[in-house]
Specification:
The chain is α+β, with helices and mostly antiparallel strands. Helices cover 27% and strands 25% of the residues. It has 2 domains: 147 residues, 2-Layer Sandwich (60s Ribosomal Protein L30, Chain: A), CATH 3.30.1330; 157 residues, PurM-like C-terminal domain (Phosphoribosyl-aminoimidazole Synthetase, Chain A, domain 2).
Amino acid sequence: MGQGGKKMDTLLEFITNRIKIKKISDEGVGVESFDDGAIIPLPNRSIDLVLTTDSFTVSPLFFRGGNIGTLAAAGTINDLLMMGARPIAMTLALVIREGLKFDVLANIIDTISEITEKFKIGIVAGDTKVMPLGSMDETGLIINTTGLGEIPSGQRITDSSIQPKDIIITTGTLGDHGFAMLVTREGIEFETELKSDVAPLQPLIQPILQYRIHAMKDPTRGGLTGVLTEWAKKSNVSIWLDETSLPISDDVQIISDIFGIDPLHVSCEGKAIIAVHPEDADKVLNLIKSNPLGNNAAIIGRAKSSRKGQVFLKTTIGGHRILDKPVGEPIPRVC
């Protein structure tokens, strides 16, 4: 939910506090949990439903490594996967500004169709609205999706399920999408091959669900820091990272230094952060690294029972600093 940062957290709390019914049953997971999706138990069935929704306002519509359609399809799929679900269907709603060229729209819709077809996910419902000139900005397109998935009844992979001693894994390098968007948007020329990491993670996530995965999240809003600070508070643990183990590409580090933006606060759209039982950590890591999407996967930290609710980073010089969410999103409108 949301874009990350403390201001967005305040807005989300304001909105959700005014909603009276936040979940279907006591066994379910609803909007009050601020997870990547809701879990809806089905009475007398062997499966539960997982439901997620998202809106995409990225600017520009096309960027290094993808377009708004790539984000919409991959983002919806990944949110379901982070709850441990198998994606089965989605809806697609479009808000289009008058004057958007048909070839632009066709390119974006074809991208969504290709991704969903690849993973046998049906686009089963939708809506289209056209807005007059002047009522939307120059991008001319907003996309909303809802994703539907299924999980075995009673299975729960949520932000509040992390246990002390759990190992924290990232499936790859950090900050790639946000910085690729920044370079594209600003029209800055670097001798770099940096592009968005946006990708559906189904081939990476489905095989590891046989192990004791306690939590998963794609580090979109707020980046790695956003994920871990939420986990620490919801699971009532502390999380300890080692800076030397964090996989950050040279290109991201250079751009980070130029703009003064911490890559740990910047979004990824094709990575997952995973909390796993310590006895399964090496198996999960090796399985992830065997897939091209997980070439740069690494163990980056662990959960502890002391100093609950905080995230600590052991720096390269041996000290520790507390990680906290920024007040606002450092690079806005990246998804």
